[in-house]
């Protein structure tokens, strides 16, 4: 079983729509969680950390469910510029594990 | 926020050439840096953990003699791909983490290596 699994998508949504996707992780001892955004042929950029109580940053909301070992990302009011691959990243004893990414395409 | 600079961003060279990639933390000291490799449509895979002043820790399956890592200072780590071959063509990315527990990693711009 992979350490981090994501639905690869793609999620094709119209502008203004809401899109959400999950990521599951296998190690219950994992300590911290992040969502990164990666544009084609570019380096990953931190989108947001994911906290136990859930957190919001503008149009982006992240949730963590430790019992079921998954994290989620929700994007409201999608913009064309949100089109990217979103990487789920899990930190376990200072070692990062990456999901393969979920591709989101926002169309006009 | 923390900035990590990576150079060069793109390299094309002949098979058998050795290629050096630099990773610098510009506004913080990084005792630990990480080197990743990413093949198309795949996730980042950790190659090695670079520790300032000591030997790098390589992940299973990564040849230490093939991928030489030097972390000579608190702001610079280098990865040298020795005698590169076409199968080494990939996107190489370094990262560094800031101070404190559970801090996110900040990535360099990445180096696209193409071996002909």
Order of helices and strands of chain A: EEEEEEEEEEE
Task: Give the overall silhouette of chain B.
Answer: globular
Task: Output the number of helix runs of chain B.
Answer: 0
Biggest interface reads: A-B, 20 and 19 residues
Provide the structure class of chain A: mainly beta
Radius of gyration of chain B using CA atoms only: 13 Å
**Major pleated sheet of chain B:** 7 strands, mixed
Number of strands of chain B: 11
| First and last CA, distance of chain B | 37 Å
What number is the mean pLDDT of chain B? 89
- Assembly classification: heterodimer
Strand content of chain A: over 45%
Helix content of chain B: under 10%
- SS content category of chain B: mainly beta
- Strand-residue proportion of chain B: over 45%
What distance lies between the first and last C-alpha atoms of chain A, to the nearest angstrom? 37 Å
Low-confidence sequence ranges of chain B? none
Helix and strand string of chain B, N-terminal first? EEEEEEEEEEE
Task: Write a concise keyword list for the protein shown above.
heterodimer, A: 108 residues, mainly beta, 6-stranded mixed beta sheet, 5-stranded antiparallel beta sheet, 11 strands, globular, B: 116 residues, 7-stranded mixed beta sheet, 4-stranded antiparallel beta sheet, 0% helix, 52% strand
